Amino acid sequence: MMDNNPEECSVCFNNYDDNQLRPGTLPCGHTFCSQCINNGIKNGQLTCPSCRAEHAATAATRFPINYAVEALIRKLKGIEVVPEKTLSAKPIKAPARGISKKLRSLVQEQKSFISSLITSCEEVLSQLGEYRGQLGDWKTHHLQLQDKLYDLVEQNKSAMKLLELEDTSVVDMTTQGEEGKTQLQAMLGNLDTVNTAQEVDTTIDTADECSMKMEDWLQKCQELFPDVKTVHTSVKVQETIREALEMMITETGATADPVHLGDSASSIMNIVQEITREIPQKQLTVEDLRRMREPVKRLVEAGRVLAVQEDQDGRRSARITLQDGQLYLHPLLRQPTPAHAHTLQESEVVGVLDPSCTLAFIDLGWAGSTRGRVTIRLTPDTPLARQFVLLCTGQRGHTYRNTKLLQVCYKGLPGEWVEGGDYESKDGWGGAPLLPDLQGLYRRSGRAGAVWSLWGLGDPRCAQFVITTRDSRVQCARVFGDVVSGLDVVRAAVNHSDIREVTVVDCGVVLPL
């Protein structure tokens, strides 16, 4: 494509300058301003907006300045280079005269070394920030577990108080029973020794009184014991604590086996993953999830149940969560596995999805918090729907998680819709298809909540998705799903001041167990 405006950046369309918008040339030959280059760098990689070539980079300073473009801009603007003394801005110093070529080479070598060191520092600082985030998550989990342990201790104390009260009552009634039994035995002896009618009358009256007391005692014992609340509470608390203890680490205080920490090139988080991988894990089955007995339920609620996938690139895992009685499978990520996690094979979990109808979800958030969940009913007999599931679960390595919403069209008018799903560049220029053939029989709809593709099935952006938020008479093509809950969340996002601040903070599918 011919560039008719060489003085401006083809991404932001701002004119180059000698400060924040200096022209930088990528190894593929395309030139963009330093600000757009910095904005496009993600995880140490930069994808060229023009040819989509990928380059390793941490900052725009890694790419050379296109001085020819700067000179052209000065010529176009009629700016002449004036002597250094007349410049109002800070001059660019020429290499000092008198320095030999060898010394100049040494200076350049030192500059390269320092630049490389700065890059290494930036990479390690980024790793430290990620590691600190993981430490924060673990501390939060410890506090949550501590609170649950306190709850168990308090439940145990309450059960003990009930048992003590019950025991006191039993002791009192036992004392009364022993005394009554002794009196009845004495009455038997007295009845054997009576000799006169008067003694018979007196002894029988006394025996009747004693017998009535013991009959009352027997009836009270049947009414009072066992106390149903005491027995039920004690048994349930014992069961709960016993199951909790069975899930705890049995080797408390034992010396851990040495773990191979990888070579010096391993990142901090890679080493963390190696350590956590060495911790024993227990296997669960899909049937365990279906039954959802109390121990498994508590494991899910504690975030210790994961679906895992092993491939040639290593191991990834996906959280399984429980909310309002519904199980959710989150996307596969390269993340440390929680200590003593319980795992299932991700393929087994995905295998339970209904081939005729799948529920997927995306969680939208802005201004630093999650604002709500959007649940979408898909029809996987269409390739676009199957692709949507792949990007919600991360089965092919890519996911909608942490992508931005891109644009709103017809805002406030019939047919209003919002677009998102650029998992590649997150700026609207990416979103390549994951399936080789997306042709199929698709519905048309103008109803609010319709989920469809804006781009043609052969377009390199057809993994992006669109959600209609207002009814319209115009029928949109390539519809592959409908919002069943959370449309109010999408409408709130549309009304946010800047749609590009809205993030898909999480995504996944609903497990029909």
Describe the structure.
Helices cover 40% and strands 19% of the residues. The chain is an alpha+beta fold and 513 residues long. The protein has an 8-stranded antiparallel beta barrel with strand order 11-12-18-16-17-14-13-19. Strands 3-4-5 form a 3-stranded antiparallel beta sheet. A hairpin with a 5-residue loop joins strand 1 (23-25) and strand 2. The relative contact order is 0.07.
For the biggest β-sheet, the strand order reads 11-12-18-16-17-14-13-19
Major β-sheet profile: 8 strands, antiparallel, barrel
- Number of extended strands: 19
- Provide the β-strand percentage band: 15-25%
The poorly predicted ranges are 80-89, 249-261
Span from first to last CA?
Answer: 53 Å
The gyration radius over C-alpha positions equals 37 Å
| Individual helix count | 11
Mean pLDDT reading: 85
Helix/strand structural class: alpha+beta
Please write the string of helix (H) and strand (E) elements.
Answer: EEHEEEHHHHHEHHEEEEHEEHEEEEEEHE
The 3D shape can be described as elongated
* Helical fraction: 40-55%
Summarize the SSE layout with pairings.
Blueprint: E1 23-25, E2 31-33, H1 34-40, E3 41-42, E4 45-47, E5 54-56, H2 67-76, H3 101-193, H4 197-224, H5 228-247, H6 268-277, E6 282-283, H7 286-291, H8 294-301, E7 305-311, E8 314-323, E9 326-329, E10 342-345, H9 346-350, E11 358-366, E12 369-378, H10 383-393, E13 403-409, E14 417-420, E15 443-445, E16 450-452, E17 465-468, E18 476-485, H11 487-494, E19 503-511
Parallel strand pairs: 6-10, 7-10
Antiparallel strand pairs: 1-2, 3-4, 4-5, 7-8, 8-9, 9-19, 11-12, 11-19, 12-18, 13-14, 13-19, 14-17, 15-18, 16-17, 16-18
Helix pairs in contact: 3-4, 3-5
